[in-house]
Amino acid sequence: MSEIKVSAERDYSVLLSQSWRNSLSESVQGRSRVALIVSETLASRVEGLDLGSSEIFTFAIPDGEAGKSSVTLLKIWDWLGAAGFTRSDLIVGIGGGAVTDFAGFAAASWLRGLDWIAIPTTVAGAVDAAIGGKTAINSDYGKNLIGAFHSPIKVIIDLDWFGTLTDRDFAAGLAEVVKCGFISDGRILDLLRGKKTPEIRKDESLVKELVERSVRVKGEVVSQDFKESFAREALNYGHTLGHAVELDCGYSMRHGECVAIGMAFMANLQLDLGLISKELAGDHLQILQDLDLPIKYKRESWPKLLAHMAVDKKSRGNSLRFVTISEIGKTDRLENPDPKKLYAAYEKVSS
């Protein structure tokens, strides 16, 4: 079992465990009540879970981004109240990034903050959403606009969960791994170049190394900058346009697929602005295409995407803001680029 330490408003461990059940059982000792918040499709997989003397309450929420709503949150608050949850009790989120985002915010908002544990079941959840303490639900005006910084007391990653994923979902998670490579750890890109998603999935040691390296990237950034003053923004590379695409498509595409489009857009924008080399821009597109991730989106959506980006969390006042790189592992920020340059870059990733 590998253990990675994260320091934020609290210190906690990210465990790469061979048995999430055993690790969770060891982590809940002394808790009277444990709420398992799980996606509807995974609810059957937690049936019969034995957590010793802890009383278990299971709350299934809609899959994906549909579960991250104020309506669902109100139901959870009512359930926690009816079950008598107190500040010494525990919430556990079991599912993809949407579930752990939601569970973390439910924990942050009930009684001004309950302890919680994240058990991510997807690649994206394991390397990104469950790490760092950003919890949230969605608004009609954008993704994750309602939330709080509230770190888990532990994250338990069991790679066996990934066997439940389709190749499409696995590849979507790898988009966040690719991002970690470009902003911090070039070895990740070396491990990915020339490989297809099915090939990666078959190599358990490779998957473990990619997950561990990506978790370390996020853990180190979060430990430096918990509340996204500057350094943590680097983790949003490709996300400004990516979140806009998610909103425009009504979350019909996977988060990682949208981030992939966002990174392809940034490759072209940075190349046009002279911020990166032609080789580095090409590296973005080749790696993403090899993983069968999308790098194009609808041309006619540009006006809506531009409006969505204006209310992105990285914007400051009326300033549109993007995370950029100058080389692998070196990030910066770009504010209010020329609208013509933005559209020219988007045209190259539009269809």
UniProtKB/TrEMBL annotation:
Location of the protein in the cell: Cytoplasm
InterPro entries according to UniProt: Dehydroquinate_synthase (IPR050071), DHQ_synth_AroB (IPR016037), DHQ_synth_fam (IPR030963), DHQS/DOIS_N (IPR030960), DHQS_C (IPR056179)
Start and end residues of each 3-dehydroquinate synthase N-terminal domain: 59-171
UniProt enzyme class: lyase
Keyword check for Metal-binding: yes
GO biological process: amino acid biosynthetic process; aromatic amino acid family biosynthetic process; chorismate biosynthetic process
GO cellular component terms attached to this protein's record: cytoplasm
Listed cofactors: NAD(+); Co(2+)
EC number: 4.2.3.4
Catalytic activity: 7-phospho-2-dehydro-3-deoxy-D-arabino-heptonate = 3-dehydroquinate + phosphate
Keyword field: Amino-acid biosynthesis, Aromatic amino acid biosynthesis, Cobalt, Cytoplasm, Lyase, Metal-binding, NAD, Nucleotide-binding, Zinc
Single GO MF annotation: 3-dehydroquinate synthase activity
Residue ranges constituting the 3-dehydroquinate synthase C-terminal domain according to the UniProt record: 173-315
Pathway connected to this protein: Metabolic intermediate biosynthesis; chorismate biosynthesis; chorismate from D-erythrose 4-phosphate and phosphoenolpyruvate: step 2/7
Similarity annotation: Belongs to the sugar phosphate cyclases superfamily. Dehydroquinate synthase family.
NCBIfam families in the cross-refs: aroB
The protein, known as: 3-dehydroquinate synthase
